[in-house]
Amino acid sequence: MPLALIGLSHNTGATVEVREKIAFTTPGTLAHALHFLKTSLEGQAEAVLLSTCNRTELYIATSGNLSDDEITELLLEARGIAGEAETICPYLRTRHGHQAIEHLFRVSAGLDSMIIGESDVVRQVRDAYSSASHAGICGKTLNQLFHEALRVGKQARTESDLGRGAFSIGHAAAEVARNIFGVGRGQTVLLLGAGKMSETTARHLTAGGAATVLVANRTYDRAVHLAEALNGRAIRYDEFADYLAKVDIVISSTSAPHPIVTREVVEPTLRHRRRGPLFLIDIAVPRDVESTVGELPDVYLYDIDDLQQLVEEDMAERRKRAVQAEAFVRDEALAFAAKLRTQSVAVPLVSSMRAKVRTITAMELTKLRQRLPHLSDDDWQTIEATFASVENRLLHDPTLRVKEYAAAAENPEVEAKMATVRELFGLEQEENARRV
Amino acid sequence: MSVAILGLTLTCYLLGAMFLGASLLLSTTEARRPWFLISGRLFAVIGAVLHGVAIGLRCIELKHPPFTTPAESLSLLAWVVVLVYLGLEVFWKLWAAGPFALGLSFLMVVLGAVWSGRAARTGQDAALLGENAVSLHILATISAMGAFALAFCCAALYLVLHHILKSKQGLVWMKRLPPLKTVETAAFTLVALGFPLLSLGILSGMARAMGGGLSPGWATDPKTLMAYLVWGVYGVYLIARLLLRWSPVRTAYILLVGLVLCLILLAIPSAAHQFGEVRPTPS
Fold first, then answer.
1. Could you tell me the fold of the domain covering A3-164?
2. Full-model pTM
3. 20 to 30 A from A197, CA-CA: which of A25, A40, B8, B104?
4. Domain B1-121 classified CATH 1.20.120?
5. For chain B, what is the radius of gyration of the CA atoms?
6. Interface test with A, best of B29, B95, B238, B239 (most A CBs within 10 A)
């Protein structure tokens, strides 16, 4: 079945306004769209709709002849925005055959993502495939394609280390914490300020092994609210200095106009600390932690610029590693495209060739039986085996050639060769006769 | 036989150090790194087993303890270093100490061979060295040295990690190294284990010396005095770490000095530790 893909993403220049128009991410829209596609395609094609905040892509495997315009129309109608074709179409891109395969493999590996290597897209690809399967519009070809895409994505990510490193400030802070304390060491984290960013950073740290979270905020109720969300404990803001001796990590993101964690506050607490480093993460602007605090022994101070630098360094590393992943994905896409072509073109052709030869053999054997009725069953077994052997030997080379032609790149020359084979074996006449 | 096995051991140590070093230094991917790591660890384990067999066979062949010549003592110390490293691997996954431990062990065995050749002591001296008190003295001291060598490595790793974290340069590279707190804890644990062993070594040596049979100036012998100094330095480390709450950077420097003193202790000539002349064994 020929494959086609039509869609847009941040990489096709689609702005967030355009992307949200065609997104199927709101509840119910995807199920409705899949139902619409199932009804419209009437079993003539398979479809998977991949829709995330950065992309909307429709993958189609069709046995009929759906043009690009028809597929575009289907996509827009599925979203109920057929009237907005002028806004959407300039950003839509179409890919066929191995290019569509390669694109999906790149998406699955995180190579086409806004943040290269991010792993959330794997779940999104899996969900898209799962939804299409449940809707009953995913057949053999797309089943194979999406299984392969998930495998290739995982392998590319693993082999080229794409998933390693920090993707965000919170992630970078968790990485540094891991370098200081190790994984799953049950550190105590103190949050100064109950902002979104400190919450995200704390979540990364708890995922990395931090066990206890304390929250201090000027508004105590907000501290209580965030502490509940993080399964931690709220403390009074004016008492935070008393806790510095007991915590391992401090995340500060208050809106205070001047530093609140000063050297005078931290230095005395170090004497009372149980042994162990103190990691201060200052993500506030203006900064909450006095820069000289970082000079204290066993204290490691990172502000937002330090963490951003770490994110950028990791991103640069990932870009280098992405080159390796791109090559792997390209090779896998070519191999899978060849496999699909072999399945869709070579296998039916070889089957037809063999069926024809087998029919001729059977006819000749029947005639021979009438002419030589005196031969024993053993003799006939020998003759049948000889015929089968000749059949196999005759078809061996043509079978190999046909598979080679099919596995080669998609081009008219290959189609011409296939047509020649059909003509040589007289298969076209038979197929026409069967159709009549 | 034991010499041939020792040759294989050296090859394993060298390959182990190279694989673990490559894993640490080469810009390779996480997917490939485990293969370097697995290979390095495998060579370390095979090397340790072979080394143990080689030492055992030599004891059986020559019918004396495995520390009657400088070469044998160095070989035994090298084996202890590798065993301590494998212990660090089991408890803290401190593979970053592998290149140091295996490289050091390789050098010690080679150095021992170059230094002494195929030498053995006379039967009388070997018998003296085979006494329980002397055996305990040497084994405890060598075990302590093995622990201190790895504590040095952990301290050096700590200082590297501390520098990277403070300067915020090379954080990407740091991901290949163990966590800061782990190396500090490992260094302390090694000294906490090594210090009692060294104490036991010194006490058993003193007990044997007081029993007679050694040169009279053993108490003021440079090696004996150096042993006290080493003991004192590691004692200071423990006090600074446990009671004075010195910063880990300062205590790490003590461990660096400690190993330098240990090396001097090993190399320093000593009249009290001479058990007759070393003579070449007939080939």
1. Beta Polymerase; domain 2 (3.30.460)
2. 0.73
3. A25
4. yes
5. 20
6. B29
